[in-house]
Amino acid sequence: MLEQIRNHRYLLVSILLAVATFAVYLPVWNHEFVQYDDDVYVTKNSNVQSGFSWQSIKWAFTSGYASNWHPLTWLSHMLDWQLFGKNAGAHHIVNVLFHVANTILLFVVLNRMTKGFWQSAFVAGLFALHPLHVESVAWVAERKDVLSTLFWLLTMLAYVRYAQRPSAGQYLVILVPFALGLMAKPMLVTLPFVLLLLDYWPLGRLGSPKYTIKRLLLEKLPLLFLSAVSSVVTYLVQQKTGAMTPLPFNERVYNAICSYLAYIGKMVWPVRLAVLYPHPVNTLPVARAVAYGVILILITLFIIYYNRRHKYLLVGWLWYLGTLVPVIGIVQVGAQAMADRYTYIPLIGLFIIIAFGAAELLRNIPLKKIILTTLALCILIGCAVVTRIQLQYWRSSYVLFDRALTVIENNAVMQNNYANILSDLGRPEEAAKHLAESLKYIPNSPAIHNNYGNALRETGKLDEAIDHYNFALELDPDFALAHYNLGVTLAMKGKYEDAIRHYKQYLGPDANIADIHEGLATMLAREGKVADAVGQFQKALAAKPDSAEVLGNLGYAMAQSGDPEQAIKYYENALKIDPDHTITHGRLALALAAVGRIDEAIEQCRIVLKARPDDAEMFTNLGILLQSKGDLDGAANAYKKALKIDPDWQQARDRLDALNQPQN
Predict the structure, then answer these.
(1) Would you give the DSSP letter of residue 274?
(2) Is the C-alpha dihedral spanning 497, 503, 509, 512 positive or negative?
(3) Is 116 helix (H, G, I), strand (E, B) or coil?
(4) Angle between the 347-361 and 311-323 helix axes, to the nearest 10 degrees?
(5) Is residue 343 within 8 Å of residue 133, measured between CB atoms?
(6) Cβ atoms within 10 A of the Cβ of 336, count?
(7) pLDDT of amino acid 251
(8) Among 333, 305, 340, 303, which Cα is nearest to 319's?
(9) CB neighbour list of residue 365: distance below 8 Å, 6 or more residues apart
(10) pLDDT tens digit sequence for 52-110
(11) 3-state class of 254 per DSSP?
(12) Closest Cα partner for 284 from 240, 322, 236, 338?
């Protein structure tokens, strides 16, 4: 029995890793999309939501959208949307499946290279369950992380096969997953250097008589060329889209030095994790950066000293240092000082040091296997528990942003994002407080001033809102959304000419004046200013007299203002232009009923129901009209049809119950 288990341990460990990883991450099935890049990548991305087509594929390969060129990532999101639509849980589970695949691949590749079965299993277990990797897996927008790592590991697997049996064909197999990985995320640009490290240990090619350093470098040239191309494309795209944050070089270096040790600290003690760690712009003490730099140098010297007997030390350490280079902040992109997701690949290097170092340290100790197994299980179970806890903070935008504000002080970006969620939840007063706090740290942010204006408008402070919109436009005169919001607020104060001027700025120089008036009228109607809305619809109609949409909306505004006779005229004119406009037929039915033209109203209801036979509300309206004519059987039948479509339609239920009561 034990012999059989030993023979199948490879498969058993792979299955155990897969099951444990999937089980720990299963709660993401009930998670929502978060309003932090998930909207950019998926929920508000019309190109992704259009699914696969020649146009969308062309966009994926030619777009620098979201400040990155990663066509394979876009194609992945398109496929998800085509298969699952708005089902956020399914999008999350796909990320988990990629993470499971990466875990098994890491185990396979390490075991094949090192022949250290249990060390490789432990490294894979740490990779699978460490809390720092929650961000990469539980965030739909980080599909690029798990997808690119899949190709990273496939490239490594192909390279191991090539190193064991070199041939031109095997080398071409390396290039394919590497190129695909770069098209998922440019994080793979450091992989050629990692392969060179693997030549040193565990493959043992570097230092053998057959392979000189020159030959091994020449061997990597095609890979280095692809890395260089990817780096240039990424730099140009991020520069063009304004993603790079202009910070002084010394500030970037200080933060990079401190981040290297901070990541190690979070690996050892993964607490107070957040979706954003704000950059300490001009506030990071130089003394701390110097001290951290000295510690890094001492660690490196220690590793070099012991490297001759323990080559995994240098490989693991340089893996960690080197793979963080693209995201360590020397080229600053975004507002973060560091990010959990950036550790997805780099921590593998440190995990290798831990796994192989522990086995080496306890080599001559009695009961070594029992001690190592116990320690490994305790560490992995601890990671799984903390990962489960960390996962719960990713279940919604509200919880995620609230957690970030709880663990990180002076987090201006998260204050802004949290305020937007509060506004969506109908809590503008609280939103305004968070936005005011955010502006203390980022006073010259057009986006935050715009959002603050929105919150103030919702609380009725229109003049203060206008001040913040104007300030946003001083900072960025082409900020279209601020023009729109300023236009809305000016219209609420009755300053229609000024509002129209900003609407034009929002819609662009080629905007149709009728569209401007119509948009303004729609907003006024929504705010309850029906009389003003009628005036704007009439101006839109003067500019666009043959628009069924404008006629219908003007009719509706007239009905709301208490003039159903005028409403009927506009509805009828709209239907002459567009006889199939179902909404207008429905509105006409209500207006006809209001003036006592019941038979005509019934006819309009039937027209609507012919086009929309599942409209419970319209069946209820039909029933009310039939009941008013004394057709009780017809009314009861209409109410029953409404309830068949929607059993919870209370108006139909009450009407039917009243009909069924015995008459005195």
Answers:
(1) -
(2) negative
(3) coil
(4) 160
(5) yes
(6) 22
(7) 93
(8) 303
(9) 371
(10) 889 999 999 999 898 899 999 999 999 999 999 999 999 999 999 999 999 999 999 99
(11) helix
(12) 338
User: Nearest-CA neighbor of 76 among 95, 55, 99?
Assistant: 95
Q: What mean pLDDT is reported for the chain?
A: 90
> What is the distance between the alpha carbons of residues 329 and 249, in angstroms, rounded to a whole number?
10
Dihedral class, residue 410 (left if φ above 0, else alpha if ψ from -120 to 50, else beta): left
pLDDT above 70: residue 243: yes
Rounded (10°) CA dihedral 252, 130, 306, 105:
-110
273 C-beta neighbours (distance < 10 Å), count: 20
**What CA–CA distance (Å, rounded) separates 663 from 157?**
83
Q: How far apart are CA 457 and CA 446, in angstroms?
A: 16
Q: Which DSSP symbol is given to 338?
A: E
User: Is the C-alpha dihedral spanning 442, 445, 448, 450 positive or negative?
Assistant: positive
| Rg for the chain, CA atoms, rounded | 32
For the chain, counts of helices (H) and of strands (E): 35, 2
The pLDDT of residue 509 is 57
Position 474 scores a pLDDT of 94
3-class state of residue 278 by DSSP: strand
List the structure tokens of 231.
């780096």
Query: Which DSSP helix (H) or strand (E) runs through 417?
Result: helix 412-424
Q: How far apart are the first and last CA of the chain?
A: 86
pLDDT digits (tens, 9 = 90+) for 98-150: 999 999 999 999 999 999 999 999 999 999 999 999 999 999 999 999 999 99
Helix (H) or strand (E) holding 336: strand 336-338
Within 8 A by CB and 6+ apart from 414, the residues are 274, 275, 276, 401, 404, 405, 408
Domains and CATH numbers, the chain: 2-392 (no CATH), 410-511 (1.25.40.10), 613-664 (1.25.40.10)
Q: How confident is the model at residue 292 (pLDDT cuts 50, 70, 90)?
A: very high
Does the pLDDT value for residue 505 go beyond 90? no
Distance CA 284, CA 270 (A): 22
Structural contact between residues 147 and 73, judged by C-beta atoms closer than 8 angstroms: yes
Distance CA(323)–CA(319), nearest Å, equals: 6
pLDDT tens sequence across 585-621: 988 998 998 989 999 999 999 998 988 898 888 898 8
Among candidates 222, 74, 204, 216, which has minimal Cα distance to 155? 222
Residue with tokens 């005229």: 569
Distance of CA 385 to the CA centre of its chain: 25
Cβ contacts of 108-113, under 8 Å, gap ≥ 24 = 108/14, 108/157, 109/153, 109/156, 109/157, 109/160, 110/352, 111/10, 112/157, 112/160, 113/160, 113/198, 113/202, 113/203
What's the pLDDT at 656? 85
Cα(422)–Cα(432) distance, integer angstroms: 9
**The amino acid at 648:** D
